[in-house]
Specification:
By secondary structure, the chain is α+β, with helices and mostly antiparallel strands. It contains nine helices and ten strands. α3 crosses α4 and α3 packs across α5.
Length: 284
């Protein structure tokens, strides 16, 4: 395996097309390698990090495909050449569009917070722009048969919906706390403004408030009750999980109330034992 990596690294270094492309960009901008060095020096001074600096000889080596830039030097090139950082990464064989696919190679078993991350705001995605006139939200239907026209919509337009700043959670594949109401592998939307546990006055389990809770060692998604300064995490009656009693404010805090859920209706692969919950950081 290491030999394969070394070979791939060597092939990257001798990829003349990459160096030639970078030289062409600089020439079209009408700047010399010394100018790039001067500009990068200003960036390095502004950031307080000499790694941003690109020397005249080093840039010549890069354009001759005798070197591979660090993330700091690549950042400086992105600023000076007015090219997206992701496009420069692609020149060296690193495509950020593969992020979602490669994340599937490292599935997380614990419940965690997650956000919608968009690596390229200018990239288009397929989006339904015209629906069949018979389409109605009240009827169950196959979406692919209701969409008459699919169009290319910039990802940046989707960002206007403020998805990036919304708070979402993921129910880990080992988390059966509210099973079968909330199945493992489900995504939930969280309202961080609602952080107080409401009294139990629900007509049914579907109306009962569900909360996302931060623990010392992870996260949980469950029904809650406050009792003598303790937060009770209450599982579904059909769940194999047990009630957990934690000191409120010390061992457990409410992140927010769950307001929506995207859930499978078939079980993902089950683990032998239900485990605890976990968390991913919220999107900035």
């Amino acid at each position: 395996m290491r030999a394969a990596w070394a070979q791939a690294k060597s092939e990257t270094r001798v990829n003349l097309r990459t160096g030639e492309h970078l030289r062409d960009i600089r020439v079209r901008l009408g700047i010399t390698t010394r100018t790039v060095a001067d500009f990068s020096q200003k960036i390095a001074e502004a950031r307080g990090n000499p790694e941003y600096y690109i020397s005249n000889p080093w840039l010549s080596q890069l354009e001759n495909s005798q070197s591979v830039p660090s993330i700091f030097k690549l950042y400086s090139l992105s600023c000076i050449y007015r090219i997206k950082f992701s496009d420069l990464l692609a020149l060296f064989g690193l495509n950020l569009q593969n992020l979602a696919e490669d994340q599937q190679l490292s599935p997380l078993q614990h419940t965690h917070l997650t956000g919608v991350e968009l690596s390229d705001g200018d990239a288009p995605i397929s989006f339904p722009v015209k629906f069949d006139p018979s389409f109605t939200l009240e009827r169950t239907a196959l979406i692919s048969r209701l969409v008459e026209i699919w169009g290319e919509v910039p990802v940046a337009l989707i960002q206007r919906l403020d998805l990036k700043h919304s708070l979402y959670g993921y129910i880990g594949l080992d988390d059966y706390t509210l099973y079968p109401l909330l199945r493992p592998g489900s995504f939930v939307q969280i309202d961080p403004e609602v952080r107080k546990c409401s009294p139990r006055q629900s007509a049914s389990e579907y109306d009962r408030p569900v909360y996302f809770i931060e623990l010392r060692d992870g996260y949980a998604c469950s029904w809650c009750e406050l009792q003598d300064g303790h937060l009770l995490l209450l599982p579904h009656p059909l769940s194999p999980s047990k009630v957990r009693r934690l000191a409120f404010g010390k061992e457990a805090e409410i992140v927010g109330r769950v307001t929506a859920v995207a859930m499978r209706i078939t079980d993902p692969a089950k683990s032998t034992q239900p485990a605890g919950t976990g968390l991913l950081p919220r999107s900035p």
